[in-house]
Amino acid sequence: MTDACFVHPRLAALYDPLDPDRSDLDAYLRMAREFGARRVLDIGCGTGVFALLLAEEGIDVVGADPAGASLDVARAKPGAGRVRWIEGDATDLPPLTADLATMTANVAQAIADPGAWHATLRGAHAALRPGGRLVFETRDPARRAWESWTREQSYVRADVPGVGGVESWHEVTSVDGPLVSFRTTYVFASDGEVLTSDSTLRFREREEVATDLVDHGYALEDVRDAPDRPGREFVFVARRL
After folding, report:
1. Would you say the pTM of this structure is higher than 0.90?
2. Tens digit of each residue's pLDDT (9 = 90 or more) over 62-101
3. Residue limits of the Methyltransferase domain (predicted)?
């Protein structure tokens, strides 16, 4: 089940205004250039920020996401016609021969179910040409990022054009081994409506991810740091065999 923050139209429209700093995507754009990628599959593309950055570089981009409301936001952006948008996940793709497949931000961790995770790795493998690369990030569990997901430390208030004032914050609801569940609350000043979105992320160990990649037909080329979050993320670079 896709989180409400991505499928509810009122919440999907807030994704970009509440998280305007996407400097985390700079490293992915540099890797697309580093690998000479001309065809890219962006898995879990959401509101299309990264897909549109790639398209601006003249790259042939397919953006896939199961949340129709998020894709509606993406399709309404300038330049959206240069991207092929698919409503679905990595198991719903047409035949592709991508040079690079990406899962930016929380996408890999949001695929918390083991069966869905393995299916995603298989789907990305099928979409890549031989020698193409899969790149994604996941938080280092040892850093226990969820301990800062409190109302006090995550509270944001923003004035969103056309919407008005919006307050939001996160609160952890459960920690069960590698699974961390949390609730995001949104309060709209214009009419007082309160909406919530429940999410669960899986915090995978580095060795677990490496094993999964090898088991699904990839060679692990590198595990990099996220330049904007040093020491907090594993950025996996895997080559399709």
Report:
1. yes
2. 999 999 999 999 999 999 999 999 999 999 999 999 999 9
3. 40-132
Q: Return the axis-axis angle of helices 114-127 and 206-215, rounded to nearest 10°.
A: 50
Instruction: Give the single-character DSSP code of 81.
Output: G
Q: How far is CA 48 from CA 9, 42, 118, in A?
A: 15, 9, 24
d(CA 220, CA 224): 11
- Which residue, among 5, 45, 48, 16, has the nearest Cα to 161 in the 3D structure? 16
CA distance linking residue 1 with residue 89, whole number of Å: 12
Query: Do 211 and 224 touch, CB atoms closer than 8 A?
Result: no
- Cβ neighbors of 215 (< 8 A, separation 6 or more) are none
CA angle at 238 for the pair 234 and 241, rounded to the nearest 5°: 165
For residue 236, CA distances in Å to 96, 125, 137, 223 come to 21, 14, 6, 5
Q: How many Å apart are CA 104 and CA 99, to the nearest integer?
A: 16
End-to-end CA distance of the chain: 31
CB of 220 closer than 8 Å to CB of 210: yes
